[in-house]
């Protein structure tokens, strides 16, 4: 019984709370092993030259895991930041604008990052 | 809805700081810091895909003093957010809500985060020798 405008302005009861909560937890669980793997890999790569890093990324397993990490991380990041904005920003139009901008930024960043990974892994650039 | 300017009763200046509230806000703060740092991750990946010169520039930035400070802060934020995140996941399944456990797990998170940060930093700098 809410108008579309009311829904956009976030009026009334919480809309997709349980879904948001669940996605945040699922991405969090996935990120535990992914982050540990990432830190381990970066440590193994530190001090290596450019060619070694490229070689490492050309391994399909590494490329895929890195891509999965990036998507999961950016999704988790957006969910978290969304809650922060909703907690502190109450000016209707400003809140909506910031949330939309944040979403665009996250989508753009993950697209660029995954593209870079694929480019290296599939051997597009040097 | 408008941003009103009604007065708030003082709270931060009044209530005694405890591990519970400190870690709670730190979890949020480290999350935000990690999100900001993710922009650098993307830049680093882009430089990698752009060739050896671009990559050398990115690595140079990291090796600079502000770069090292940023890396240390980001690693510390990562390990803290990770450890406290696991603590949150236990709460999500209903475990560990007794007050003594909350405080103990809180301090454990701090110890784990500092240890992992120190270990990672030591391992990373050892390689560059």
Write the topology of this structure:
The complex is a heterodimer of chains A (126) and B (129).
Chain A: H1 4-8, H2 17-45, H3 50-58, H4 60-88, H5 92-121
Chain B: H1 19-49, H2 52-63, H3 65-92, H4 99-127
Helix pairs in contact in B: 1-2, 1-3, 2-3, 3-4
Task: Explain how this protein is built.
The complex is a heterodimer of chains A (126) and B (129). Chain A is an all-alpha fold and 126 residues long. Chain A contains 5 helices and no strands. Chain B has 129 residues and is mostly helical. In chain B, helix 3 runs antiparallel to helix 4. At the A-B interface, helix 2, helix 3, helix 4 and helix 5 of A face helix 1, helix 2, helix 3 and helix 4 of B.
Oligomer: heterodimer
Note poorly predicted spans of chain A.
none
Instruction: Please give the number of β-strands of chain A.
Output: 0
Derived structural class of chain A: mainly alpha
Give a summary of the structure in a few sentences.
The complex is a heterodimer of chains A (126) and B (129). Chain A has 126 residues and is an all-alpha fold.
Question: Features of this protein?
Answer:
heterodimer, A: 126 residues, mainly alpha, 5 helices, elongated, B: 129 residues, 4 helices
């Amino acid at each position: 019984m809410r108008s579309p405008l009311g829904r956009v302005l976030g009026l009334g009861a919480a809309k997709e709370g349980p879904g948001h909560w669940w996605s945040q937890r699922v991405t969090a669980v996935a990120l535990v092993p992914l982050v540990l793997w990432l830190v381990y890999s970066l440590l193994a790569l530190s001090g290596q030259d450019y060619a070694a890093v490229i070689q490492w990324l050309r391994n399909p397993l590494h490329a895929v895991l890195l891509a999965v990490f990036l998507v999961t991380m950016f999704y988790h990041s957006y969910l978290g930041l969304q809650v922060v904005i909703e907690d502190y920003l109450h000016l209707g139009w400003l809140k909506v604008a910031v949330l939309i901008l944040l979403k665009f930024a996250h989508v753009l960043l993950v697209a660029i990052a995954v593209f870079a990974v694929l480019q290296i892994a599939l051997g597009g650039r040097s | 809805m408008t941003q009103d300017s009604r007065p708030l009763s003082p709270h931060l200046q009044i209530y005694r700081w405890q591990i519970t509230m400190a870690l709670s806000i730190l979890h949020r703060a480290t999350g935000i810091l990690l999100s900001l740092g993710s922009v650098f991750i993307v830049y680093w990946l882009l430089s990698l895909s752009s060739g050896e010169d671009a990559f050398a520039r990115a690595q140079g930035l990291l090796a600079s003093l502000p770069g090292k400070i940023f890396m240390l802060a980001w690693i510390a934020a990562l390990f803290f957010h990770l450890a406290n995140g696991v603590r949150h996941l236990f709460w999500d399944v209903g475990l560990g809500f007794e007050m003594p456990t909350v405080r103990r797990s809180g301090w454990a998170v701090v110890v784990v985060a500092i240890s992992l940060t120190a270990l990672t930093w030591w391992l990373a700098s050892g390689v560059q020798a």
